[in-house]
Design a protein that fits this description.
The chain has nine helices and eight strands. It is α/β, with parallel strands linked by helices. The protein has a single domain, classed as Vaccinia Virus protein VP39 (Rossmann fold), CATH 3.40.50. Strands 1-4-3-2-5-6-8-7 form an eight-stranded mixed sheet, sandwiched between helices. It is globular and about 50 Å long. The two termini are 31 Å apart.
């Protein structure tokens, strides 16, 4: 039987996930981290079909395959809806498991390809694409308001180096991107799932990191950032154990790197730093 792993949480920039403004399309601080915490990973075996409507093989219990997200609450506002209509045809890509993505055709040019997994409301993504115009950014997010917000930023900012999948990044990796095709991967502030019993839901786990490493070109990099120190320690442990990856942190350091210039300092992050909170960046390269 194929090994499967529980559903894993979404990611995104800190400003997006921690908005508390009235009428915000995001959840209030940390509420996303406790959504449906008691849903079992293996539903009862007396059901006839799995949640996708596919028959269950005899003797095989239902289990959740690996995902890069958990769907969040929220609605798409009128500005985001207009962005879908106005800019979606140019910047949204259709997921098609039957064929690999032609990145040169998708972007209209050949350039280094950076994948961002979970971009929240897209502010950091748009900033990075602006300061790195020579790179192509392939961005995956399932949260509809977030996709609409990034489409708005991309269209109004005239950014030509972003393309978006509103689809699970794991399936995009598995079915549309060949191994050794990525020059970099960004995963910023994935959900830390604080409670010990929920750690299995964290995105950065050994099987997923190996999948990412295999999709990197030699010399390609994996950049992670988190504001939760225990999660940073787990990230460092998992990445250090992956034989295909090498830490770029200075010898004798604690294993983390200074924030790269291209990653913007979000309002929430800046507020946390003023309060003495930490943020940890990790950058590993494919050996």
């Amino acid at each position: 039987m194929e090994t499967v792993i529980p559903i894993l949480p979404p990611t995104g920039d800190l400003d997006a996930r921690c908005s508390t403004k009235p009428g915000s399309y995001n959840l209030t601080p940390f509420s996303r981290r406790t959504m449906n915490p008691d849903i079992p990973d293996i539903p009862t075996a007396d059901k006839a079909q799995n949640p996708a409507g596919e028959p269950r093989p005899d003797g095989v219990p239902f289990m959740r395959v690996i995902k890069s997200y958990v769907l969040r609450a929220g609605r798409t506002g009128p500005g985001q809806a207009r962005a879908y209509e106005q800019f979606g045809p140019q910047f949204l890509l259709n997921y098609d498991a039957s064929q690999a993505l032609d990145t040169t055709a998708a972007f209209g040019r050949a350039a280094s390809l950076i994948m961002e997994i979970g971009f929240g409301m897209g502010g950091a993504t748009a900033h990075i694409a602006t300061v790195r115009p020579d790179d192509n950014f392939l961005c995956c997010e399932v949260h509809e308001p977030g996709v609409g917000a990034l489409l708005k930023l991309v269209g109004e900012g005239g950014l030509q180096n972003i393309r978006i999948f509103r689809h699970d990044a794991v399936e995009v990796l598995d079915h549309m991107l060949p191994e050794g095709s990525l020059d970099g991967v960004h995963i910023f502030f994935p959900d830390p799932w604080h409670k010990t019993r929920h750690h299995k839901r964290r995105l950065i786990q050994t099987p997923f990191v190996n999948r990412l490493a295999r999709h990197l070109k030699p010399g390609g990099y994996l950049h992670l950032a988190t504001d939760w120190e225990p999660y940073a320690q787990q990230m460092l442990e998992v990445l250090s154990a992956e034989p295909l990856l090498k830490n770029t942190a200075a010898a004798g350091s604690d294993g983390y790197v200074p924030k790269p210039d291209y990653r913007p300092l979000t309002k929430f992050e800046n507020r946390g730093i003023k309060l003495g909170h930490g943020v940890w960046d990790l950058v590993f390269v494919r050996a």
